[in-house]
Amino acid sequence: MVFSLRWGIVATGGIAELFFKDLIADPALRGVTDVNHIPVAVASRSLEKAQAFIDAHSPAELQGKVKPYDTYDALYKDPDVDCVYIATPVSLHYENTLEALRAGKNVLCEKPFTVNAAQAKHLHAVAKEQNVFLMEAVWTRFFPLVEQFKKVLHVDNAIGRIHRVYCDHSHPFDPVKDTRAYQASTGGGALLDLGVYAILWTLLTCYHHPDNQLSPPDVIQAVSLRSPINPEVDESTSVITVWEKAKIMCIGTSSMMTYSPGECVVRVQGTKGQVIIPIHGSRPEKVIVLYDAPGMGSRTYEYPIPGQGLFWEADAVARDLRDGKKFDDNYPVEESIFVMELMDEVRRQNNLKFPDEIEFVEKY
Predict the structure, then answer these.
(1) Is 326 considered catalytic here?
(2) Cα of 168 vs its chain's centroid, Å
(3) 170-204: per-residue pLDDT in tens?
(4) If DSSP codes are grouped into helix, strand and coil, which group holds residue 319?
(5) Cβ atoms within 10 A of the Cβ of 4, count?
(6) According to the model, what pLDDT value does residue 177 have?
(7) Where are the alpha helices (DSSP H) in 252-299?
(8) How is residue 293 annotated by DSSP?
(9) pLDDT for the residue 363
(10) Are 244 and 211 in contact (CB under 8 A)?
(11) Where are the domains of the chain?
(12) Do 106 and 132 contact (CB within 8 A), yes or no?
């Protein structure tokens, strides 16, 4: 029997548009037959915006069936909504997710989860109190390619013992001070917006290495270059982590001023060769294994994406809710908290602070 999950989408920006389109894509195109998705409500700051979003993106069979709301609270109270997708700016993730959880809704919140670890811990606590599902929407984490990447490294040991990892996620933003990326008040800067992907590949390689046993890095050393447009935010950030149990050093970088090198955004070097992910680090379609031994050559695993790729995280949520789970085994909230703690430390080392009004945590 196919399990259908009914979604409410909060906000109507670009990522909400992509998510909506992937929800209504035919699951068979990605080889999925056990779950599907039904958008039933969209909320924006005005009824007109919500309705315009629905009209623009709904196929004929959904016209008139997706409800528009002009407040997020109204959507949270809709009994037809099984799960809420939070697509607001990062500075609002904590507040919006908290409201949805307290309304008794299951929540998938767009990444980065919050602006600090304390907020993430509070959301985790509230989700447990309310007995509802909660997950951060790190979409790349649910790609079939990522499972192949982990298998090559940690099961097949294709490149032997891992020595060193490089990962980068960079993309130029329009250098205008009053845009979201350059405003501390909206959680701007390279680290939270782009660095989360470099951290993702760091964790997949090092944190999840069998020898590491899900231990934190023994060393975190970070340096940030502040933006000349607005010195309150980081323009580029580099993070070195050392994982003593696995004996791996990792260098992760991100920048708002340039693109990642197309031929290689992730490079994992081992005793027998290296594994490469070409651009783009958030939406990869190839894993390349280059062997050092003469005659071994290389091997490429290709994973074309039939759409944007956001549907795989939605599929995971649907299966979790179908099976009665409140957190995802592949990406539990505890790991989201760990990522936020790592980024907190990077910001601490570089004296990068957000305004109190977005760093706040309610007492609990």
Answers:
(1) no
(2) 15
(3) 999 998 888 999 999 999 999 999 999 999 999 99
(4) helix
(5) 12
(6) 87
(7) none
(8) S
(9) 80
(10) no
(11) 3-139+310-332, 144-302
(12) yes
**CATH topology of 3-139+310-332 equal to that of 144-302?**
no
Nearest to 110 by CA among 17, 232, 173: 17
pLDDT along the chain (364 residues), means of 10: 97 97 97 98 97 96 95 98 97 98 98 97 98 98 98 98 98 90 95 97 98 98 97 97 98 97 96 96 97 93 96 98 98 98 98 96 84
3-139+310-332 CATH pick, 3.40.50.1000, 3.40.50.720, 3.30.565.10, 2.30.29.30? 3.40.50.720
CA atoms of 281 and 60, how far apart (whole Å): 34
H or E element at residue 220: strand 219-226
CB burial of 164-201 (b: ≥16 within 10 Å; e: otherwise) equals ebbbbbbbebeeeeeebbbbbebbbbbbbbbbbbbbbb
Using DSSP bridges, classify how beta strands 67-69 and 35-43 pair: parallel, antiparallel or unpaired: parallel
What is the Cα–Cα distance from 85 to 16, expressed in whole angstroms?
8
Structure tokens at 172: 């130029």
Q: Per CATH, which fold does 144-302 belong to?
A: Dihydrodipicolinate Reductase; domain 2 (3.30.360)
pLDDT at 94: 98
DSSP 31-51: T--SEEEEEEEEE-SSHHHHH
Cis peptide before 112 (omega within 30 of 0): yes
Which candidate in 111, 245, 286, 353 is catalytic? 111
Pick from 84, 88, 91, 71: nearest CA to 135: 84
42 forms beta bridges with 9, 68
CA nearest neighbour of 156 among 9, 287, 1:
287
Tokens of 132: 């509802």
Q: Which pLDDT score is estimated for 30?
A: 96
Cβ-contact 204, 150 below 8 angstroms: yes
Structure-block tokens of residue 225: 């270059």
Residue 34's identity, in one-letter code, is D
Tokens of 356: 């109190």
Q: At what angle do helices 311-322 and 14-23 cross, to 10 degrees?
A: 60
